[in-house]
């Protein structure tokens, strides 16, 4: 999918993986502009031609790395759970894990880099969006719909479900990039406040 | 303030300004990692020593550029207006201008770069925060407090005023960095939905 047409599928899985991992690590550490194919080749222990046989440029390589290495299971709930369990209980059960996940320096650094390249290299945001964000948004939308059925989220939120999701996700990603990033305990309280405000936790 | 101690204040205002403008433009276009003192010197039409006499490195120069060039008047309301006028009316009156401002490619690109450097170069986010964000947050907090007095914003929002502000600002900055950024009309509707959700516009 991310392999350019005409270049064929990569044939060596282990080499591929080493290159993609090196690419993602360098992207997170230095951004697109600070990363070169030469650095990726060196870090992965391969020659530049090995990389260019697979990807046309660093943007395609980094997009492919996100496509391959970023896990797409949303983690905090299955569609079945959303359909049958209480939204309050589901959200409450997910808070510890979410607070731990979004406060790691790896998460903060990846979000910073993806946001940072959104205007200059929209392909990277686009891949991250498809791969990581959309599956989570689908679940969040189902959860909001269910909460509305149950009457814990007001009707007017449902009208703008994408806005409500942006308000939750936007607040959290914005918060972890602020000058004084929260620790796990503070993030737990923060997430509770956000979910309460939207109506996904009791007032 | 951003001039390193011992280097003295810059003496040539026009040269300073040319250097700072070049630094900010290159930062927005290429990020911190893609910008060098050499490029800034070339763009500003000065020698590298002229820059190094004023700033120790590119991070300090870019921070100084934000300090100097980013206008700090929040624009959408004065403290007096917040104290005396209806929050609904103030928010409504600010929407056209805000929608136009946040949908420009310059705004989107600057936000992307500042967020993008938040983990690798926290000094830049810190300067942006002090210079641009904090004055706006102060006004927004006053507006929320006033709306709460008037009963249009629920009490529980007031408990977490910083969270409510993050939800508004976070949503908007997140939205303009998404793969399909909104035009001015869509942003107007989007802002209305966000303010309605918080209680700063009528349901």
Short description:
Chains A, B: Pfam families: TetR_C_11, TetR_N. Chain A has 203 residues and is mainly alpha-helical.
Short descriptors:
203 residues; mainly alpha; Arc Repressor Mutant, subunit A; Tetracycline Repressor, domain 2; 2 domains; 0% strand; disordered N terminus; transcription cis-regulatory region binding (chains A, B)
Structure description:
2 copies of one chain form a homodimer. Chain A folds into 2 domains: 12-73, Homeodomain-like (Arc Repressor Mutant, subunit A, Orthogonal Bundle), CATH 1.10.10.60; 75-202, Tetracycline Repressor, domain 2. The first copy, chain A, has 11 helices and no strands. Chain A has helices at residues 13-30, 37-44, 48-52, 58-69, 79-84, 87-102, 105-116, 122-149, 155-159, 161-177, 184-198. The longest helix of chain A is centred in the last third of the chain and has 28 residues, at 122-149. At the A-B interface, helix 7, helix 8, helix 9, helix 10 and helix 11 of A face helix 7, helix 8, helix 9, helix 10 and helix 11 of B. Chains A, B: Residues 36-55 bind DNA. Chains A, B: Keywords: DNA-binding, Transcription, Transcription regulation. Chains A, B: This is HTH-type transcriptional repressor. Chains A, B: GO terms for molecular function: DNA-binding transcription factor activity; transcription cis-regulatory region binding.
